[in-house]
């Protein structure tokens, strides 16, 4: 309160001014919280079986020493692409060259021995012929009483002796032929050993680093390096018996006999490296376990083959495998971040025409790349809270800002639109 005095025409006038006034203390409700809302996306999706797998080289071979000796040369660089029979190592050939020469000399000696034995046989046969003639003559003389018994016995003994010499000569020839065969076998082995001093690539592929350094001694069977052909890659994986039934139903109809390799190979398979988010490789089933389902694990083994000319896959990598089994038309998709999950289930916060929040339980199917398939609980024309869930309470009102959703930023989902199951890239994960 302020007091002021003024003198007007000799009269003191006192004015009292009240400088305070009262204001209203009524409660004013805050405006509804702002949230971002959206409607689901409808899209045709291919449903896939998803499993983990491990890659394996289609061809891999160890480079081993087939003879012992010191390594005199290494003719490759680690990781180099080599062709079959390309020289990789050289093992000292001196000893093996000497062995080969000795074996060749043994062959020549055996051939010469055969010639000597054949000459001896010819001489023995001539002696047999002469002895036969002498014996014939002595018998004629005896018949005419012109010869003696002693002369006849001597001719008979000479004939038998010459025949024995001929048989011995024949035996010597057979023995010499056997020695020749043995000598030739030793020569062939010596030539092989000499050839093996050059260690060659067993297959086409890339060679690993050398396990044996230059100048070191190697033994027969020592592993020197490995050659791996990575131009194609196997992926081994297993599926459950239940998923096997789904896969059998999904096989395209062919004229091939059921369960034949050609029949299974019609099923496309998709591979993604562990850690990749978008890139998939296309392949086909290559083998199914002929032993059937493993009774211990209840799983069925399969193998797929993939082209790997670009070298993006390496043996032993853990990968994700997907096999298409069926399609869903007009699948209801929402961003996974819009789902509220707790111990009782999965929920969405819906916004009605009066901008009021309704909490509704939904059934969520497969998820991929931040998107979820809603199996039940959401209609295509309903609106749900996308962002601002912490401000949305059941029964309360909100101030919505609607946004339009699209799968354009998800290549795998977008690519499934209007695609057939046989050639559509993977778009969904397993149940």
From TrEMBL:
<feature type="coiled-coil region">
    <location>
        <begin position="121"/>
        <end position="193"/>
    </location>
</feature>
<dbReference type="InterPro" id="IPR058627">
    <property type="entry name" value="MdtA-like_C"/>
</dbReference>
<feature type="domain" description="Multidrug resistance protein MdtA-like barrel-sandwich hybrid">
    <location>
        <begin position="59"/>
        <end position="230"/>
    </location>
</feature>
<dbReference type="Pfam" id="PF25967">
    <property type="entry name" value="RND-MFP_C"/>
</dbReference>
<feature type="compositionally biased region" description="Polar residues">
    <location>
        <begin position="398"/>
        <end position="409"/>
    </location>
</feature>
<dbReference type="Pfam" id="PF25917">
    <property type="entry name" value="BSH_RND"/>
</dbReference>
<comment type="similarity">
    <text>Belongs to the membrane fusion protein (MFP) (TC 8.A.1) family.</text>
</comment>
<dbReference type="InterPro" id="IPR058625">
    <property type="entry name" value="MdtA-like_BSH"/>
</dbReference>
<dbReference type="InterPro" id="IPR006143">
    <property type="entry name" value="RND_pump_MFP"/>
</dbReference>
<keyword id="KW-0175">Coiled coil</keyword>
<feature type="domain" description="Multidrug resistance protein MdtA-like beta-barrel">
    <location>
        <begin position="235"/>
        <end position="325"/>
    </location>
</feature>
<feature type="domain" description="Multidrug resistance protein MdtA-like C-terminal permuted SH3">
    <location>
        <begin position="330"/>
        <end position="391"/>
    </location>
</feature>
<feature type="region of interest" description="Disordered">
    <location>
        <begin position="396"/>
        <end position="431"/>
    </location>
</feature>
<dbReference type="InterPro" id="IPR058626">
    <property type="entry name" value="MdtA-like_b-barrel"/>
</dbReference>
<protein>
    <submittedName>
        <fullName>Efflux RND transporter periplasmic adaptor subunit</fullName>
    </submittedName>
</protein>
<dbReference type="Pfam" id="PF25944">
    <property type="entry name" value="Beta-barrel_RND"/>
</dbReference>
